[in-house]
Amino acid sequence: MASRKTKKKEGGAKRAQRASSNVFSMFEQTQIQEFKEAFTLIDQNRDGFIDKEDLKDTYASLGKLNVKDSELEDMLKEASGPINFTMFLNLFGEKLHGTDPEDTILNAFKMFDPDAKGYVHKDQLQKLLMTQADRFTPEEVKQMFQSSNIDAAGNLDYKSLCYIITHGEEQEE
């Protein structure tokens, strides 16, 4: 059994990244229990991690025997590290709540901050949000600004906003 565990960690001594403990606050206790049951069903070898062999075995138990390794690897690549239960919850949290990872949102804001100051003027942001792609309503913009750090000059601290979007509360300093 130990050989299977060591085989699983092909990338060296990679440990599961500590996902935000806030992931547990995204779900109700009954949902967490259901996810735990699903995780346990998928973790066929009961080592606390979901790997390619676990996915292959799960598909086989459902009658699908011809799953390509590349498909399984693509599934595993959706996680930023080995998939323990916390990472599993994080993946579902992102999918179910429709939020991009924090670094993706930060990179989007950085496109409007060429000098890398860490802020964007609220007027510029409001104009973009109300005229481009999935347009915000004035009420949605107002709501976003209420939960944002905006200085006296009207500059919005987008790093702080990204944290609020992905974690649901302001970062403790």
Tally of contiguous helical segments: 9
Global mean pLDDT: 82
Spans of at least 5 consecutive residues whose pLDDT stays below 50 are 1-20
Radius of gyration of CA atoms, rounded to a whole number:
20 Å
Topology as H/E string?
A: HHHHHHEHHEH
Strand order of the largest sheet: 1-2
Q: Quick one: how many beta strands?
A: 2
Pairing-aware structural class of the strands and helices?
mainly alpha
Keywords for this entry:
mainly alpha; two-stranded antiparallel sheet; 2 strands; 53% helix; 173 residues; disordered N terminus; single chain; 9 helices
Please characterize this protein's 3D structure.
The chain has 173 residues and is mainly alpha-helical. It is built from nine helices and two strands. The chain has helices spanning 2-8, 29-42, 52-61, 69-77, 85-97, 102-110, 122-131, 138-146, 158-167, and strands spanning 119-121, 155-157. Strands 1-2 form a two-stranded antiparallel ribbon. The chain is elongated, with a radius of gyration of 20 Å. Mean pLDDT is 82; it is low at 1-20.
Short description:
The protein has 173 residues and is mainly α. The protein has helices spanning 2-8, 29-42, 52-61, 69-77, 85-97, 102-110, 122-131, 138-146, 158-167; strands spanning 119-121, 155-157. Strands 1-2 form a two-stranded antiparallel sheet.
Annotate the secondary structure layout.
Layout: H1 2-8, H2 29-42, H3 52-61, H4 69-77, H5 85-97, H6 102-110, E1 119-121, H7 122-131, H8 138-146, E2 155-157, H9 158-167
Antiparallel strand pairs: 1-2
